[in-house]
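**Sequence, structure tokens**
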Amino acid sequence: MRSSLVGAWRLSRLAALGFVLSLLIAAGAGCSGRSATSEVPGPVAGTATLLADGRVLVAGGYSGANTQATASAELLDPKTDKFTPTGSMTVPREGHTATLLEDGRVLIAGGGNSASGSPTDLTSAELYDPTTGKFTPTGSMSKTNSGGMATILEDGRVLVIDTNGSADLYDPRTGTFSPTGRTADGHRWGGLTLLPDGRVLLVGGVNDQLHDLASAEIYDPSTGLFRFTGSMTTARSGLTATLLPDGRVLIAGGQAGEVERIAYSELYDPRTGTFTPSGSMIEPRSDHVAVPLTDGRVLLVGGTNAIGRAIRTAEVYDPKTGTFSSTGSMTVARYWPVATLLSDGRVFVAGGQGNADTVDASAELYDPNTDLFSPAG
């Protein structure tokens, strides 16, 4: 059995690390004006979504190995660094996806819950309207989906891929899902990236036998089909795949086999369909998050290190030089955290798991001008 990446905790919860817009934190309802450093009931396997008005919606998730998913949601206001409650989801969810739509609403799709006493994967979806603060049901997917990945397409539809490789398209004009092409390799715990030409890159992860993948596939919305593109130089899962300003995609870190964490990175060029090696990270990491900064660099935060321990370090990739450099460290060690770029250029980081299966509900902010993290709130 694989180590922390595919341990019993992860297999039972199906918390995905594709995280293009599905990010691993949640917060439960509580007192109005509670600061972001307060304890919240669901900081793992929920979602955090930057809204059009600059606030962050955090919804769903769970807070421990023996806890049930929550339906609660809150809003973080970066101007005050405070959380306030908002409406609750129609059902409790963990391991769902959250995607900001063109009209400002948020699509919450799939996930699972254990309200009936045993884990149940969901086909249902709902919409959050920030103008009313309410969630309402919308169409259902063709397959259950817990721990999947999602991204909005150029035409406003949403591509949702489940952990077994089947995919649906959500049309916000009709509020319905329809099946689309199926991936060849599954790519659970891989990376999903919308490319500048409107296609979608799906890379790495594991297959149905939990073997790491070097393969990559391209989804073409014009045909509704996935096709293979070039393969990475190494198989890896728990990676990050981040779009760079020049249209290339940075593949960084991850895990290969039972114990090896990866420090080296590579670049995918959609013009040639090939991967080429790039710089190595300061330290190997898997189950981390990566956030593109406003100046074109990429911030990589947290994760697990070479011996599988949660880490608090962070580093920055500069695409101009192809190198990584150390930056300030978080106040706590965490993997599977959320990391969201705010409209003012700072990065909101929160939640995730620490060592010994602890769950951390604190939040902090990274300032690229000072290269420092500070507690939020």
Remarks:
- The chain has one domain: 4-229+331-375.
- The chain has one helix and 33 strands.
- The mean pLDDT is 84.
